[in-house]
């Protein structure tokens, strides 16, 4: 017996065609702006307009996803009490990582960045955005996986970081391992898997970042 699948519905593409000069100008300006983006660990407690957070998350939500299932959840944390709980739990896991879980080679790499198990930014930054990957959905009595969810959420997070930077905000991608405590503290269901924790705000006036460089175009691109 042949299966009956829903038929697709199409609408006209809303695409803006640009002159090549305008394309190049936009590409250059976008690169120059994103090239100033740095991971920040010294945050100010200065408040941030919540509308900026909302618009950035809406932007992230435009990312492509497998089967258009949009397998992401963005939990925005403002509560000082919840931020405190997250910091304590994260520092506990990070202590275990820095003092036993991480290899010597990994620790040597991190030494150049000056990181350690202490994460005060989790309380100082005005907002934390915890991104969850939805790994399955339930429709009636049937449960199915979300397809290419890892890749889809990764793309969305990249767009989120770009949107927040474009809005004039500083960010940090924090991935304590394991991250199950985020699921528990925030009361998320089993099918929502913590993906990344992003403090968002303004950098402290005396903020510093590691003196590192990015790879050149020749190192990251290959034309064949």
Task: List descriptors.
two-stranded antiparallel sheet, globular, four-stranded antiparallel beta sheet, NADH Oxidase, single chain, 224 residues, alpha+beta
* CATH architecture verdict: 3-Layer(aba) Sandwich
The tally of strands reads 6
Taken as a percent bin, the fraction of beta residues is 15-25%
Percent of residues in helices: 25-40%
Low-confidence spans = none
Order of helices and strands: HHEHHHEEEHEHEH
Topology:
Layout: H1 20-35, H2 50-60, E1 72-77, H3 80-101, H4 104-111, H5 121-124, E2 127-134, E3 136-139, E4 142-145, H6 149-166, E5 170-171, H7 180-185, E6 192-201, H8 217-220
Antiparallel strand pairs: 1-2, 2-6, 3-4, 5-6
Helix pairs in contact: 2-6
Q: Could you give a quick summary of the protein structure above?
A:
Helices cover 40% and strands 15% of the residues. With 224 residues, it is α+β, with helices and mostly antiparallel strands.
Protein described:
This protein has eight helices and six strands, in the order H-H-E-H-H-H-E-E-E-H-E-H-E-H. With about 220 residues, it is α+β, with helices and mostly antiparallel strands. The chain has one domain: NADH Oxidase (3-Layer(aba) Sandwich). Helix 2 (about 50-60) runs antiparallel to helix 6.
């Amino acid at each position: 017996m042949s299966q009956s699948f829903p038929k697709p519905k199409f609408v006209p593409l809303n695409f803006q065609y640009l002159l090549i000069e305008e394309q190049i100008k936009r590409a250059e300006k976008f690169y120059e702006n994103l090239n100033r983006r740095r991971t920040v660990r010294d945050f100010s407690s200065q408040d941030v307009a919540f509308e900026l957070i909302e618009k950035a998350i809406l932007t992230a939500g435009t990312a492509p996803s497998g089967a258009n299932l949009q397998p992401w959840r963005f939990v925005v944390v403002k509560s000082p009490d919840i931020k405190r709980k997250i910091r304590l739990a994260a520092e506990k896991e990070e202590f275990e990582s820095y003092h036993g879980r991480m290899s010597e080679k990994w620790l040597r790499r991190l030494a150049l960045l000056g990181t350690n198990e202490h994460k005060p930014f989790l309380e100082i930054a005005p907002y934390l955005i915890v991104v969850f990957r939805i790994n399955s959905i339930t429709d009636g009595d049937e449960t199915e996986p979300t397809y290419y969810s890892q890749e889809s959420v990764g793309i969305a997070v990249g767009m989120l970081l770009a949107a927040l930077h474009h809005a004039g905000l500083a960010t940090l991608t924090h991935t304590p391992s394991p991250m199950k405590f985020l699921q528990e503290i925030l009361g998320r269901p089993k099918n929502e898997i913590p993906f990344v924790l992003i403090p968002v705000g303004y950098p402290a006036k005396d903020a510093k970042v590691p003196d590192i460089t990015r790879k050149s175009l020749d190192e990251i691109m290959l034309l064949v």
